[in-house]
Amino acid sequence: MSHLANILVVEDEAHLAQGLLFNLREEGYTAQLAVDGETALEMIAADSIDAIILDVMLPGRDGFSVAAELRAQQNFIPILMLTARGRPEDVLSGFDAGADDYLPKPFELSILLARLKGLLRRMAWLRPPLPASPPQPLRGGPPSAFHFAGRTINFASLQLTTADKTIRLTLMECDLLRYLVHNQGRIISRKELLEQVWRVHEDTDTRAIDNFMVRLRRYIEDNPAEPVFLETVRGIGYRFLPGVAEGSPG
Fold first, then answer.
1. Separation between Cα atoms, residue 200 and residue 147, nearest integer Å
2. Which residue from 53, 100, 187, 240 has the fewest beta carbons nearer than 10 Å?
3. CB count, 10 Å around CB of 249?
4. Is residue 176 part of a domain?
5. Number of folded domains in the chain?
């Protein structure tokens, strides 16, 4: 990134928080601290924040609530959520609230820094390139957009456009749509989605995936109650059927 990324750490464990601030600054970031959810929301409203490291367990307003509030405000700052013991239900609840990535506690600093760089890099792709610059490649390769049935998923700008609306997507929603596009026509199990998109490798309740699919149907279907493009395969998972598409998944 061309400017020093401003990272907000939202963590009430003093020892961990100070260690994160120190190491983020050593890496060249600007780093600030909020010890509770309400303070975090106030700081985000008052300052330009590039990414948030957000603990789930906070006094008062928890991390899920903070993430959900930001997304409800149409604020799409990348969120790296820290989950207790990597519990699958925490991971899925975090993504459902609008988080873009997660790390279970305890974590290795090198992994956190790598995940953070990945989120910042993906957001940097959204900035208009200089006139002479070639397009930035997206994770997973081309294309930067996928067209079907009068709808466009723009992976570069994190937007889904239909005839009458434009919806801003989270990074995770884009990753899920990208996976569906790459595997269109194939039945995809909930377990596969958990492992390949959410990177959760434990047996867990899959209702959060179903909640994501309900949300995606509201975005892409004319009648979400009777889906045409994103069908449920009972007892297995889902199948994306875009029909005759104008674009190719690559």
1. 29
2. 187
3. 17
4. yes
5. 2
Residues 212 and 107 in one domain: no
Domain boundary at 124, 155, 181, which?
124
Q: Indicate whether 32 belongs to any domain.
A: yes
- Strand pairing class (101-105; 79-84): parallel
Q: Do residues 106 and 167 both lie within one domain?
A: no
pLDDT at 53 over 90: yes
Q: Provide the residue range defining the domain that includes 170.
A: 145-240
pLDDT tens profile 3-15: 689 999 999 999 9
The three-class DSSP label of residue 209 is: helix
Predicted TM-score of the model (pTM): 0.71
How many whole angstroms from its chain centre is CA 184? 21
Does any domain span residue 1?
Answer: no
Provide DSSP, 10-55: E---HHHHHHHHHHHHHTT-EEEEESSHHHHHHHHHHS--SEEEEE
pLDDT tens for each residue of 39-49 = 999 999 998 99
